[in-house]
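Known limitations

Files may contain more than one protein. Parsers should not assume a single record per file. Below, a two-record file is shown to illustrate correct handling: read the sequence, read the token line, then continue until end of file.
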Amino acid sequence: MAKRTTLPKDSDHYRDILENISEGCFEVDLAGNFTLLNPSMAKILGYAAEDLLGVNFKAYMNEDNIGKVFQAFNEAYRTDNPAMLLNGQHVRTDGSTVEIETSVALLRDEEGRPKGFRGIVRDITERKRMEQQLIQMHKMEAIGTLAGGIAHDFNNLLMGIQGFTSLMLSDLEPDHPHYKKLLQIEEQVHSGADLTKQLLGFAQEGQYEIKPIDLAEVLKRTAAMFGRMKKEIVIHRTCDKVLWRVEADEGQVEQVLMALYLNAWQAMPDGGTLTLEARNKTLDEGMTLLYQVSPGPYVWMSVGDTGVGMDEKTRERIFEPFFTTKAMGRGAGLGLASAYGIIKGHGGFISVTSKKGEGTTFDLYLPATRKRAVAVIEPEESIVQGQETILLIDDEEVIIEVSREILEMMGYRVWTARTGHEAIALYTSRKNEIDLVMLDMIMPGMSGGDTFDRLKAINPQIRVILSTGYSLTGQAREIMARGCRGFIQKPFRIETLSQKIREVLA
């Protein structure tokens, strides 16, 4: 049969439509040989039109897709109704994969006899990519909620261990045989608290000290620090001459970058190149909508390596907490998870591209600000005694017990309540005696937020310190905005608590 190298000319109008629509249009005979196709069809398949006309479609598809197409053709032939082929894939000559959606219908001759099939093909690669990213985002949000809850409960456990250990240390002389062991327990508690901070960072519950910072300086400093540690890595760093400022926690951003550097180093066991970039970028709604952030000015940072790369399955899970490809003992799998949560918690987003054997690149975007960079001076801490009366509200018996002993050791008189209702009743009868309230945020029945509102209604000038295993975000920040005087995160050190109490009472 003769090849047709052009579209039919029986109608210039329809010819124009076929040549300009984005969907691929084709016709095949009953054997599956192409008899017609438009430019979009050739583009989708990744071939020139003249290479396809007169050739059987099986020559350009893998076995799996051939079976799916035959199934669609058979259904259209058998039922005389259009048939859909969903979730099809085609590999182009350049090795790229295109996701396609195909609709086929039976084609008849002038006498009504079947003579082939006509079809429309849509390239849904971008749509599938966006759907996958949305699914991934929702999964990460769900995991983040779970991680935040685990971190909160774990911090409550650590608070009991930390508190009783501190109390025992305060009663012992340094030469006591158990003194060093108790110090080691405290060190382990601090390590556990660092782990929960990473979990809270992933859950976007990290406690941030926000100020305008210069990312070019942060990038320069962290690259120099990492370069001194890993001399087998060659580092290339480029930034815009005048980089916009961002409002962020400098320590948290450093943590993100160091996690990415370490990930790159582990992907390059024999050495390699680490490429760091920072640029000013203005993002439109088309870019930001997918990541659920606002369009506008952003600072883009890129961390790329020449390492082993990742397959698609690994890439999809790279930001999940405790997921790691490393051998046992070489990491908890929290570095990248924490980085993901920290960037999200700062109103930005992070994405990753990777190819097996060719390396990995992380792209980070943080909203820009016009504010100038400022320096923050950290206050010194020491244990300060007091004589006031404190109402301690917490539903955990261990937290009540250890916190009461710590407060009494510092000289305070302590009343305790284990529910919001009990606290309100106690405060109503003794409000003239109570100078300060320490309030747990997460409690069954009446929550910490509701309890605070009821207490404040009794005494608008009430002094309250909010205490929780979560960080100062979300619900805690809302309670603070309603007039709560102070915040402290469990597990806390005695010195930190004593300073916070004096600060609020002052």
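...continuing to the second record:
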Amino acid sequence: MPNPPTEALLANLRDRLGPRGFTRAPDEMAPWLSDWRGRYHGAAAALVSPASTEEVAAVVGRCAAEGVAVVPQGGNTSMVGGATPGADGGALLLSLRRMNHVRGLSAEDNALTAEAGAILAHVHDAAATIGRRFPLSLGAKGSATIGGLVSTNAGGTQVLRFGPMRSLVLGLEAVLPDGSVFSSLAPLRKDNRGYDLKQLLIGAEGTLGVVTAATLRLVPAVGTRAVAWIGVDSPRAALALLRRLEARLGDAVESFELVPANALALVLRHVPGTRAPLARPQPWNVLIEAVAPVGAADPCGALEAALADALADGAAADAVVAASEAQAESFWKLRDTISEAERAEGPALKHDISVPVSAMPEFVVEAARAVEDRYPGTRAIAFGHLGDGNVHFNVQPPTGPDAAAWLAARGEEASGFVYELVIAARGSISAEHGIGQMKAATLARTDPPARLAALHAVKRALDPGGIMNPGKLFAPS
């Protein structure tokens, strides 16, 4: 078990980091001691905010010498409590927000190097200055940071074409649990020197070290895009449509989002300024975005032609292609505000899961039916990234004044049932949000023993003192 920090250690860090880099003031610490969803609340001995990799190394080195726990934090947008310290108050909360610079840009390398505290939206802006883009986006792009995205192997809406962060990180810099610095920021496409340490740190959720900077892969900027909303009879029809469009448009298809009628209805009911894109409601909907780089042919004509053929032979029930950027954004708003609409509807159980793409069409239907049959009165909403098998599978409790009580009494059991269905479908209990503290016990219960043993062996080897982000990823023993 880690040790609480001594007053001498805290005084040393205060002197080393200065007033901008060290605080114990409750009002300054309070916003960062709870996760953004308000589910997890913790305490910390101090909040440290280093301004450089050297300062991070100094903090971690001192903590390692005295066995003090360190909880790294970026934009505090974790969906699973991964950046919230424990309740005992014995850890240091290490914020990377002051390390927010873009260190380098290269059009020749198609690469950008950013510090861990750089906000995703700012990275997008920086890439645009050299006619490039970083092809990962998500709803929290205005607050999520590069370090957090790396540490959770974040996904988003463009994984279909570009993959998650694992596919987009060319180089990495991190402070390891003993305070040493792992520096490998060169934008290498090929590097065959044995174990890939950067991949070990990607998705580790701060349990193996503190990511301080990353070199990211860039791609050509978007010249034109076509966005369409399509109605289909079933998820199986949606997947067939995806494969059909890929055959016609190739890599131009970047996003393919599955939206059921019940999710769309929530958005139309709770989100002002939204309207149904199609004249008649459809049981399932698909949001598609196809793009072309500057100077290439506009994908709109090809998408319209492909959809016309799909409508003609019954592969799609209805479709509309956005006629303007404003209409395209209105389509995306319908997808991006599903979570907001669910919150307005009331509390719910949320599951970020994945299954093989081929299994997803049946899973979203059959698993929803199984949950609703087992727990009468509940309503399952399954939506997400059909092209990569990522399902956001949410369960609303029975309506009425006792919804919160039902969640307290039956929620854990119901989530366990959902995860049983996921495992039976050869899936994963976490697709893109990570494990954090929310799913640590579930991971310990459901993962194969050999995999768990390997994870624990890696943790012991790199962090023998157990000081890095304790309580996350691994269930307390």
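Parsers that stop after the first record will miss the second one. For reference, the second record is described as follows. The two ends are 10 Å apart (CA to CA).
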